[in-house]
Design a protein that fits this description.
8-stranded mixed sheet; 25 helices; globular; alpha/beta; Aspartate Aminotransferase, domain 2; 3 domains
């Protein structure tokens, strides 16, 4: 191939990468020349381009070229290893020998690196010191969480059925559980990664570089919610981690008394919440990589902490009256405080199925009655509320638990606790329970939090990057006028109700209107829960296990099994995980599925950016209808799918075929 032709291909690749590939969009304006070897195998061009552009980005900012090439090679190696299933055998064989070496978790010996790269001894030593903080954004975002965050090598998806890499071909209405990164979120995380890597290569030091990123997140969250700087923001790997943190804050303020933790409908929150609320380990490992014993006590927490669970549903699944629920809460509080217990009252805003309890006016009455004798913790981990509503809760001296990974559609495992001044003041003295050091580092807390001094002198870098992605989604939502948000959510609800009504096998579960908030969109439902029946069992609702199969098969390309219906079968649809709920006329639980409107529906799905706003929204609504069409297809073909038991994957089969055809055409 002639050099002129090579340069033309390179220009096209660079233009296409900036326009379409989020991994490369941060390098816009950076140019790099590829060696002729890079063009020998078309499937590897993106790998060589990735390496060259990242190295050029660092070099343009004053990093020595050999050091830049070595640091960039780590990210390039991880990048192409994640794409290994799309490469032909000849392409895999043609990869540089350093790819598997640099893609590993453990830093290679200095001599090994020197054999591949021209960096000096000092530069190699620096790279080996900062090795765990180098790599791709998606690789780093998969760190700093528990086992649920791990990527399954068979599917390239995590325990939530999503990916930290963008997955634009997937129809996504899964914000009640978790979402794959969008191009917008991924790009924000990658920019934050590059800034931190640049600081590391300049010798800032691992802790300082990560702390700068975490402080930027804290300040960004505070700005979104209209709060002062980031002094009242504590970062946590997940919503469940924030629950453990909330209990620790009560230990700081009233550990001289036994604690009664009042939970609202714990079955409609995270599975680990009841354990964390008692000071127990809620998984087998922690965000900082500690192996722990599931349900064992976390050191330093009171062993006599009790739970009071207040249900929001009757035994047949019907919703309880609001007044009855609040009367029960008031009675439990009065009894507990009469017995000398320190009460933590939870607020559920919102549950997995969109329920809110108790109401803000009830909280105000309790605060007026008991003053500071109890703590309020608002589980707002769905974060389907306005900044004004968050500030209203803080004004009641409530700790507000939020995530960037539910409604806001940031990557999973991005939690935070927002503290009112009265609670933040507790961090000035005392010590947090010692077992908290398995979950939090010192730099996850505000700088002046003296009570956190006993925590390890680290911060959660993966968490920082996930939050940077979430903040990009938050800012995009806030640019949309509240009235427009309401208009879009109204349209979403109409589509869902119509689609469910059209399928006799589906039944929409009722949810009362949300009564808090001043912005109209806050009052509208954005989580729709429905039960299912299938031909194999027409007289009952699907069990939780059967509903999980529907959830998984929706997230799978079923066209190889259902070729006659491949137009719908091939579409990958990611929705909310099933919720076990009681049902009328049966003692068995049903598995109810959920479709949810996330912030991206309102702000605009980045992969549809070429469409006009109206056309983009119609595309989203058409995709929503596809979800229900595919559910109907699954229910009609239950026996065939049950026998095959297909599993989700990152890409649909047709994308793998298209990749193969593209390579063949270029070759």
């Amino acid at each position: 191939m002639q050099p002129a032709a090579l340069l033309e291909i390179e220009r096209e690749l660079c233009a296409g990468a900036v326009r379409q590939e989020p991994e490369f969009s941060v390098f816009k304006g950076i140019s790099a020349r590829l060696t002729p070897d890079a063009y020998q195998h078309p499937g590897l061009l993106s790998f060589y381009l990735r390496h060259a552009l990242e190295a050029a980005w660092f070099t343009a900012r004053g990093i020595a070229s050999d050091l830049a090439a070595l640091a960039a090679a780590r990210a390039a190696a991880q990048f192409i290893q994640a794409e290994a299933d799309t490469l032909a055998p000849v392409e895999r064989a043609a990869l540089p020998a350093w790819v598997p070496v640099l893609a590993g978790d453990v830093a290679p010996a200095a001599g090994v690196l020197a054999g591949y790269f021209a960096a000096t001894e000092a530069e190699i030593a620096l790279v080996r010191r900062i090795w765990p903080l180098l790599g791709t954004a998606e690789g780093l975002m998969e760190t700093g969480g528990d086992i649920r965050l791990e990527r399954d090598p068979r599917t390239a998806l995590n325990g939530y059925g999503c990916s930290h890499r963008p997955r634009p071909w997937a129809i996504t209405f899964a914000s009640s559980t978790a979402s794959s990164s969008s191009e917008r979120g991924y790009t924000a995380a990658d920019r934050a990664r590059l800034r931190t890597t640049l600081a590391l290569l300049r010798g800032t030091g691992s802790r300082n570089a990560v702390r700068q990123s975490l402080n930027g997140v804290r300040n960004g969250i505070a700005k979104v919610f209209g709060l002062e700087a980031g002094s009242g923001v504590i970062l946590a790997a997940s919503g469940t981690d924030t629950e453990l943190l909330a209990l620790a804050l009560t230990h700081l303020g009233g550990a001289d008394k036994p604690i009664l933790n009042i939970l609202i409908a714990p079955e409609e929150t995270g599975r680990g919440v009841p354990m964390a609320a008692k000071g127990l380990h809620f998984a087998v490992d922690t965000a900082l990589g500690h192996d722990v014993t599931f349900q064992a006590p976390v050191a330093g927490f009171r062993a006599d902490t009790k739970l009071a669970n207040i249900p929001l549903r009757e035994a047949d699944g019907a919703l309880r009256a609001v007044d009855a629920v609040e009367a029960e809460i008031a009675a439990v509080m009065a009894s507990a405080m009469g017995q000398g217990q320190r009460v933590i009252l939870h607020v559920l805003d919102l549950s997995k199925t969109g329920l809110l309890s108790p109401r803000p006016e009830f909280l105000a009455r309790m605060r007026g009655l008991y003053g500071e004798a109890f703590d309020i913790v608002v589980d707002a981990c769905q974060t389907r509320l306005s900044p004004a509503s968050v500030r209203d809760y803080l004004a009641l001296d409530a700790v507000v638990l939020i995530t960037g990974s539910k409604f806001f559609t940031g990557p999973p495992f991005a939690g935070a606790a927002l503290l009112p001044d009265a609670i933040a003041a507790r961090l000035a003295t005392g010590r947090l329970p010692e077992g908290l050091d398995a979950y939090f580092g010192r730099d996850d807390f505000p700088p002046r939090a003296a009570a956190a001094a006993g925590l390890p002198p680290v911060g959660n870098y993966g968490l920082a990057l996930r939050w940077h992605a979430a903040l990009a989604e938050m800012h995009a939502l806030l640019r949309v006028a509240p009235a427009r948000r309401a208009e879009i959510l109204e349209g979403f609800g109409q589509i869902v109700r119509t689609a469910i009504a059209a399928q006799p096998a589906l039944s929409l579960l009722s949810a009362p209107a949300v009564t808090r908030g001043v912005e109209p969109w806050e009052h509208l439902p954005s989580i729709f829960t429905f039960s299912l029946r299938a031909p194999h069992a027409p007289g009952r609702c699907l069990t939780p296990a059967e509903a999980r199969n529907v959830y998984l098969w929706l997230n799978t390309d079923l066209s190889p099994l259902l070729p006659a219906d491949q137009k719908i079968a091939a579409r990958i649809c990611h929705i909310g995980q099933p919720v076990p709920l009681p049902q009328a006329g049966s003692t068995e639980l049903q598995g109810a599925l959920r479709v949810s409107a996330g912030a991206r529906l309102i702000s605009g799905e980045p992969s549809h950016s070429s469409l006009a706003p109206g056309a983009r929204l119609q595309r989203e609504f058409a995709d929503l209808a596809v979800v229900f069409s595919k559910i109907g297809l699954i229910l009609r073909n239950w026996e065939r799918l049950s026998a095959a038991n297909p599993q989700p994957c990152y890409r649909p089969a047709r994308h793998a075929l298209a990749d193969a055809r593209r390579r063949a055409m270029v070759a």
